[in-house]
Amino acid sequence: MELRVIRNQDGFGEIQPQWDGLLNKLDPVPLPLSCAWLQSWLGAFAGNAQMEFRCLYSQGHLVGLAPLLKSRERYRGMPVTLLHLAANGHSPYSSVVVDPDLDPAQTREALERLTKVDPNEIGLFFKIPRRSSLKAFLLDQSGIGHESVGEKPSLVTPVINIEGDWETFYRGRPRKLKKSLNHKLNRYHAAEGFDIALETVSTAQQSLVDELIDISSKSWKSAIGNDLKSNHRSRRFLLNLISEFGASGQLTAWIMRQSGVPVAYELHLAHDEIVYPIRADFNAAFKSYSPGSVLEYTALKFLFDNRGARQYYTCADDYWYLSNWTSDYREFCNVEIFGSCTRLKCLYWLEYRVIPVVKRLIGKQPRKQPH
Fold first, then answer.
1. 6 CB-contact burial (10 Å; exposed 0-12 / middle 13-18 / buried 19+)
2. Cα separation, 318 vs 124, whole angstroms
3. Phi and psi angles of residue 124, each rounded to the nearest 5 degrees, phi first
4. Is the bond preceding residue 153 a cis peptide, omega within 30 degrees?
5. What is the value of pTM for the model shown?
6. With 50 as the cut, is the pLDDT of residue 371 above it?
7. What mean pLDDT value characterizes the chain?
8. Nearby residues of 237 by Cβ (< 8 Å), 6 or more positions away
């Protein structure tokens, strides 16, 4: 097998047919690993990190890929070189891909080449599936370079499978959810001037895009600088996604307006019959109308009624309100591999041996009673 490393976006674009061709062997095809998604993500979030997209070939065919970046970061205050997957909070998940047609020995060799961490690096495999061969491989401490490895929890993402008809599905939801939603829907319908539309986001020049940014700027996220107007990286990511996916019709927005004033939206990206609600915001002034809940209800009902997808992948953590919609989850974790140099071995022992013990001891300390 031959390992080739891509270090710029132009080189990445040149191998798009091979990269996406390998992904097409998977079911479902992973959106966050596709060329279009990664090109959008890199243009917004890569910053000063160095691309190290590893591609493994066998007899001229791409059989493995790892979208990695290398950057200088601080870990517990110590400067380190971090080798990490090209993913962040905007990414539903990430992974390393090996051709499913490889035999077990070839698969292990491929994973070794694709995930190798140098002695002076920390490898961060962020948001990878908790029940996967990749995680099992990384945590196998008998492997070369895996002597200092640890796991931390990440997302537990609810997913809703679009099966059967809407009435049957909704009837099976908890009574508490239906009672709450019916109250919100009644209040929404009783108000004047509200309407909801499903619109395709095809170009950045649409007035719709300005409406999305305006809604976000008036949401609770503006207080923490995470809205689309003040956070230039998030806005750039949105515009990049429109550039990559807009022409295909895969990017749509459910938008709520009152008398023409934009109130709330839920942005969807459809890929391989899976709908990803990649961002949602509402104007905080309309909070009393529960616009987020009304939009989500409307979007879900539409998916069941129109059979346009097989799954609604929430892209969220296990929030209590989502657990009322489904009991099906995808679990993810972060795996860290510390290089073999003495400094990083010490850092590993601090992170995974010393600090957990200290936390347990602190947790066992009796609380002082108020006088």
1. buried
2. 23
3. -115, 115
4. no
5. 0.92
6. no
7. 93
8. 40, 41, 43, 44, 45, 90
Mean pLDDT of all residues in 155-178: 94
Residue in the structure block whose two tokens are 């799954």? 311
DSSP one-letter string for 7-28: -SHHHHHHTHHHHHHHHTTSSS
Q: Picking from 26-35, 135-144, 169-178, which range would have the lowest pLDDT averaged per residue?
A: 135-144
User: Please, which pLDDT band fits residue 322 given cuts at 50, 70 and 90?
Assistant: confident
How long, in residues, is the chain?
Answer: 371
Contact 314, 160 (CB under 8 A): yes
**Which residues in 120-147 are b (16+ Cβ under 10 Å) and which e?**
ebbbbbbbbbbeeebbebbeeeebebbe
Q: Which of 299, 317, 316, 321 is nearest to 308 (CA)?
A: 299
For residue 325, give Cα distances in angstroms to 5, 86, 171, 330.
43, 30, 11, 14
Partner residues linked to 352 by β-bridges: none
Contacts within 8 Å (CB) and 24+ apart, 17-26: 18/55, 18/61, 18/62, 19/55, 19/62, 19/65, 21/62, 22/62, 22/63, 22/64, 22/65, 22/97, 22/99, 23/97, 25/99, 25/100, 25/101, 26/97, 26/100
Which residues face 300 on adjacent strands? none
Task: Check: CB of residue 130 under 8 Å from CB of residue 331.
Answer: yes
**181: its two tokens:** 């939603």
Contacts for 64 with CB less than 8 Å, ≥ 6 apart = 1, 22, 54, 55, 56, 96, 97, 98, 99, 110, 111, 113, 114
SS (H, E, C) 51-110: EEEEEEEECCEEEEEEEEEEEEEEECCEEEEEEEECCCCCCCCCCCEECCCCCHHHHHHH
CA terminus-to-terminus distance, the chain: 70
Q: Are 170 and 178 in contact (CB under 8 A)?
A: yes
